[in-house]
């Protein structure tokens, strides 16, 4: 597939296809919202909802959020906004606003790991355990001294098995199912209406987003990372607002 030629929307910032041909697949934390001290304390900037709604209309509904968070959290922060949501780095998928989250047959995290994770975070102030469908996150943003002990504990739990993997996140260590990544979600969404036949534009900020970038580019689209392609998440959101305003 050939790379599409950019349109006039690229006047400030990286190139994008014209909105009537584009599909947007966007990361949440560090991209649509700034990184905050805790997962619950992120702030949706005034104007972002209007920007996303305008964009969704102008690109025929082809707007998806592809996040590491559970889908329910995107519903909380961006209620009714995206057409589709892929959660937990591509493990979970809801293909349409009124559709159901697709059932996932995945191994749950062993109870022993969950119990040890609870005990571990209780030993380090200002740390947190986040539970997911088939994973967990040990957050140490509030106490960086926990980084090494958290990693060591996870490595011990994971040794001798290949169902789960450790992944670095921003001031957090995550356990995920092996083989799950955002690239799968991009491919799945781009195969269905209203995304199919459009040019994917994926934007993210973290290691987990590199699979989304690769998948979008492999489909003949665009993949951008903050801070490589946009200096900050704020710059990215300004670019996004510009796309909507000039259509
Ligand atoms: O794929 P994303 O939408 O970027 O989600 C990645 C992870 O984001 C969240 O954690 C990160 O953001 C928090 C809020 O800014 C921050 O406090 C934390 O230190 C970061 O690691 C979320 O909690 C995770 O579940 C996501 O996987």
In short:
By secondary structure, this protein is an alpha/beta fold.
Descriptive account of the structure:
The longest helix is centred in the middle third of the chain and has 13 residues, at 111-123. The chain is built from 7 helices and 10 strands. Strand 7 and strand 8 (172-177) form a beta hairpin. It is globular and about 50 Å long. It is an alpha/beta fold. 30% of the residues lie in helices and 19% in strands. It binds ligand L263DTV3. The ligand O=P(O)(O)OC[C@H]1O[C@H](O[C@H]2O[C@H](CO)[C@@H](O)[C@H](O)[C@H]2O)[C@H](O)[C@@H](O)[C@@H]1O binds at residues 27-30, 35-39, 42, 67-69, 130, 137, 139, 141, 169-172, 206, 208.
Topology (elements, then pairings):
Layout: E1 22-26, H1 48-58, E2 63-66, H2 71-77, E3 84-87, E4 92-94, H3 111-123, E5 128-132, E6 135-139, H4 147-158, E7 164-169, E8 172-177, H5 182-190, E9 199-204, H6 210-218, E10 222-225, H7 233-245
Parallel strand pairs: 1-2, 1-9, 2-3, 9-10
Antiparallel strand pairs: 3-4, 5-6, 6-8, 7-8
Bound molecules: the ligand O=P(O)(O)OC[C@H]1O[C@H](O[C@H]2O[C@H](CO)[C@@H](O)[C@H](O)[C@H]2O)[C@H](O)[C@@H](O)[C@@H]1O.
The ligand O=P(O)(O)OC[C@H]1O[C@H](O[C@H]2O[C@H](CO)[C@@H](O)[C@H](O)[C@H]2O)[C@H](O)[C@@H](O)[C@@H]1O binds at residues 27-30, 35-39, 42, 67-69, 130, 137, 139, 141, 169-172, 206, 208.
Question: What are the defining features of this structure?
Answer:
7 helices, binds ligand L263DTV3, 247 residues, disordered N terminus
> What would you report as the Rg, rounded to the nearest angstrom?
18 Å
Element-level helix/strand string: EHEHEEHEEHEEHEHEH
- Which small-molecule ligands are present, each listed once? ligand L263DTV3
List low-pLDDT spans. 1-11
What integer is the average pLDDT? 93
Briefly, what CATH class of the largest domain? Alpha Beta
**Beta-strand proportion:** 15-25%
| Main structural class | alpha/beta
The helicity comes to 25-40%
Q: Give the number of domains.
A: 2
- End-to-end separation in angstroms reads 26 Å
Largest sheet: 6 strands, mixed
Tally of DSSP β-strands: 10
Total of DSSP H or I helical runs spanning 4+ residues: 7
Q: Per CATH, which architecture of the largest domain? A: 3-Layer(aba) Sandwich
Cofactor: Mg(2+)
EC number: 3.1.3.12
Pfam families: Trehalose_PPase
InterPro entries: HAD-like_sf, HAD-SF_hydro_IIB, HAD_sf, OTSB-like, Trehalose_PPase
């Amino acid at each position: 597939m050939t790379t599409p030629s950019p349109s006039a929307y690229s006047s400030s910032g990286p190139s994008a296809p014209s909105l009537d041909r584009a599909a947007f697949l966007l990361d949440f934390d560090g991209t649509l919202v700034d990184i905050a001290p805790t997962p619950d304390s992120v702030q949706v900037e005034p104007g972002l909802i209007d920007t996303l709604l305008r964009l969704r209309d102008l690109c025929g509904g082809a707007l998806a959020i592809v996040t590491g968070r559970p889908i329910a959290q995107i519903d909380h922060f961006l209620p009714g906004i995206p057409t589709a949501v892929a959660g937990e780095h591509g493990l979970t998928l809801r293909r349409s606003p009124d559709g159901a989250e697709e059932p996932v047959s995945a191994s749950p995290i062993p109870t022993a790991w969950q119990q040890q994770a609870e005990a571990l975070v209780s030993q380090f102030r200002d740390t947190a355990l986040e539970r997911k469908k088939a994973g967990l996150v040990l957050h140490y943003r509030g106490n960086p001294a926990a980084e090494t002990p958290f990693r060591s504990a996870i490595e011990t739990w994971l040794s001798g098995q290949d169902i789960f993997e450790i992944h670095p996140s921003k001031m957090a260590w995550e356990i995920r199912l092996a083989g799950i990544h955002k690239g799968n979600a991009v491919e799945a969404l781009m195969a269905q209406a209203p995304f199919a036949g459009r040019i994917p534009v994926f934007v993210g900020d973290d290691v987990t987003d590199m699979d989304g970038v690769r998948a979008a580019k492999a489909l003949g689209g665009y993949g951008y990372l903050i801070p490589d392609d946009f200096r900050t998440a704020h710059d990215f959101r300004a670019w996004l607002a510009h796309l909507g305003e000039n259509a």
